[in-house]
Design goal:
425 residues, Growth Hormone, Chain: A, 0% strand
Length: 425
């Protein structure tokens, strides 16, 4: 705290310390989600080394994605009750343990324990609930932009590291991937310990854009009870089901399908693993701009209309991909259209959730909506692997995902058409 307070004083009048907090959380999320996504690089090498099928390995990835979603609301409640820094440091320790352990796997159950259980639990602290919590505590103005920025790191983290990890795997074997991940986590832990601050008042500041500090509503009681209470509040609202259902489609069409199986799908068409990872990395670059831009747009325009266009364009891109030649031009066009709204859906979804449920309850309820996102992703990861095993192709999985996105683009127009009255804050 002493280091952070000194830095806040040195930046006074030039840069609000909230942006430092955002920078730390951006880095944590970028690396944490990159760790979670590393098994997509290992999918083919593990098949070759151990003879495991695609659907067997996909099951571990599915568990990973499922835990990331299911534990997200509880992690958010723990952050509210015991602090963001403590929770993040504990999550990084789990990620470190899981990545180190995965370098020594020889049995399927060990893969499920490390990449599935430990890394799934650790990565759950990098979900969208934490982004909403930081944005609501530290920012009154530009909140949508901050959510977009942190969301971009959540999506891009699993993409931008993949070419590097694929190159490591090709040059030094797949074991080098979890070892490199572990070294990165070791370097990140002291950064979090020194510079992550809970709230503006701790360094003598007000929230960005506020004349006086806007304190977060107090959170007391058992965090797990609070998380379940948030779910109970949500399921009584029709808007919650629309938010959760459409966001499940988002997870189905991103993390679970493209994030897990795109490299293998490209390799089915004769593209090398490194080149296929480069396709995912280009998606991450375009997503970085698209999601940050989505946050900016969400501060200014109707989020329902934004979601309509995001889901619609994504669905068209997924429907078209199986019928391309998987040549550089067609993959480049796909990377642009799909990448720009990879998770551009998140800022307007968070803004709508806050509109319906209020700033106090939004972080936990956003985490439950994100849980639906991960359930959709987990379903896609395991089902797409099974489809590939049974049919020899991913085509059916991509077509089904595209059709679901088109349906979601119509459903989002009904979200919060009569917004709930929330308590004045």
């Amino acid at each position: 705290m002493l280091v952070a307070a000194r830095l806040a004083r040195s930046l006074s009048g030039r840069v609000h310390y909230g942006w430092v907090v955002v920078g730390v959380m951006f880095t944590v999320t970028l690396i944490g989600v990159g760790v979670r996504a590393a098994p997509s690089v290992l999918l083919v090498p593990l098949q070759h080394d151990f003879g495991w099928s695609a659907d067997t390995i996909s099951g571990a990835v599915s568990l990973n994605i499922l835990l990331l979603g299911l534990m997200g609301p509880f992690m958010t409640a723990v952050m509210q009750r015991f602090g963001i820094k403590r929770t993040i440091l504990g999550a990084l320790a789990l990620l470190l343990l899981g990545s180190l352990g995965s370098a020594f796997v020889t049995q399927v159950w060990q893969l499920y324990l490390t990449w599935g259980l430990l890394i799934g639990l650790g990565a759950s602290a990098t979900g969208f609930g934490g982004a909403a919590l930081v944005a609501n505590r530290w920012f009154v103005e530009r909140r949508g932009f901050v959510i977009g920025l942190l969301t971009a790191s959540n999506a891009s983290g699993q993409l931008v590291f993949l070419p590097f990890l694929a190159a490591l795997s090709g040059a030094f074997g797949w074991v080098s991937v979890p070892l490199a991940v572990a070294l990165t986590l070791l370097a990140l832990i002291p950064v979090v310990a020194l510079f992550l601050v809970e709230r503006p008042g701790a360094v003598g500041l007000s929230s960005y854009g506020a004349e006086g500090e806007v304190p977060p509503p107090p959170t007391t009681g058992n965090p797990f009870v609070n998380a379940v209470r948030g779910l109970g509040q949500g399921i009584r609202s029709g808007d919650f089901w629309l938010l959760a259902g459409t966001f499940a489609v988002c997870g189905f069409s991103t993390y679970g399908l493209v994030g897990t199986h795109m490299i293998a799908y490209c390799m089915d068409h004769g593209i090398s693993e490194v080149a296929a990872a480069g396709v995912l990395a280009s998606l991450g670059v375009f997503d970085l701009f698209g999601t940050i831009g989505s946050g900016w747009l969400s501060d200014r325009y109707n989020p329902r209309i934004l979601l309509f266009w995001y889901y619609g364009l994504r669905g068209l891109a997924l429907l078209a991909l199986p019928f391309t030649g998987f040549d550089p031009l067609s993959l480049g066009i796909f990377a642009v259209f799909y990448g720009l709204d990879w998770v551009a859906t998140v800022p307007p979804t968070v803004m709508l959730t806050t509109e319906v449920f209020g700033r106090k309850d939004a972080p936990v309820i956003v985490s439950w909506v994100f849980c639906a996102h991960q359930l959709g992703g987990a379903l896609a990861a395991i089902v797409a692997g099974a489809i590939r095993t049974q049919t020899g192709s991913y085509m059916i999985a991509f077509l089904a995902s595209g059709a679901a996105c088109i349906m979601a683009s119509l459903l989002v127009l009904r979200i919060a058409r009569r917004p709930a009255l929330v308590a004045a804050e």
